[in-house]
Amino acid sequence: MGNGNWYSQFAKTAARFCGKPRVFTLAVGVIALWAITGPIFGFSDTWQLVINTSTTIITFLMVFLIQNTQNRDTEAIQIKLDELIRATKGAHNALLDLEEMDDEMLNAFRAKYELLAESARKQVEEGGFDTDSPEA
Predict the structure, then answer these.
(1) What is the pLDDT of residues 15-49, one digit of tens each?
(2) Are residues 122 and 114 in contact, defined by beta-carbon separation less than 8 angstroms?
(3) Pick from 55, 51, 28, 26: nearest CA to 38
(4) Domain limits of the chain?
(5) What's phi and psi for 131, nearest 5 deg?
(6) Model pTM?
(7) What is the DSSP string of the chain?
(8) Which of 62, 63, 37 lies closest to 50, judged by CA?
(9) pLDDT tens digit string along 62-73?
(10) CB neighbours of residue 133 within 10 Å
């Protein structure tokens, strides 16, 4: 596997696996087992340290796996949206890579679309329609 591809594949597989109801049930079972053993170990500091350390490590690792999966999903959605813009007659191709623009450019586009929305609401209030495609 190529540079970083193994991690993406691992993260995707791990995220799918960890999202299954069986894994959640297993986690609840482990916590219940830990709680049940409390009296056996006299609710000692070591007994508490076991669950604290375990959950911290698992949480730390899951943050990276979830972030990787979320990044991949977001990129896929952006590509799909870009394709819809590209394929829609009359759509503005300047919006294709909007997520890559700086805040100033994003704010400029947002302002244009806010004006369009305001104008469309006024048309509706006056009994008109808001289903056309005005220039942005």
Answers:
(1) 899 989 999 999 999 999 999 999 999 999 999 99
(2) no
(3) 51
(4) 5-92, 97-129
(5) -105, 10
(6) 0.65
(7) --TTHHHHHHHHHHHHHHTSHHHHHHHHHHHHHHHHTTTTTTT-HHHHHHHHHHHHHHHHHHHHHHHHHHHHHHHHHHHHHHHHHHHSTT--GGGTTGGGS-HHHHHHHHHHHHHHHHHHHHHHHTT----S----
(8) 37
(9) 999 999 989 999
(10) 11
Instruction: Give the residue carrying structure tokens 């700086």.
Output: 102
- Using CA atoms, how far apart are residues 15 and 86, in angstroms rounded to an integer? 32
Q: Which two tokens stand for residue 50?
A: 């076991």
> Which residue in this structure is represented by tokens 């993260």?
11
Q: Please give the biggest Cα pair distance in the chain.
A: 75
Tokens of 91: 């759509």
User: Which two three-digit tokens encode residue 56?
Assistant: 């911290």
- Distance separating alpha carbons of residues 47 and 35, to the nearest angstrom: 9
Q: What six digits make up the tokens of 37?
A: 């053993």
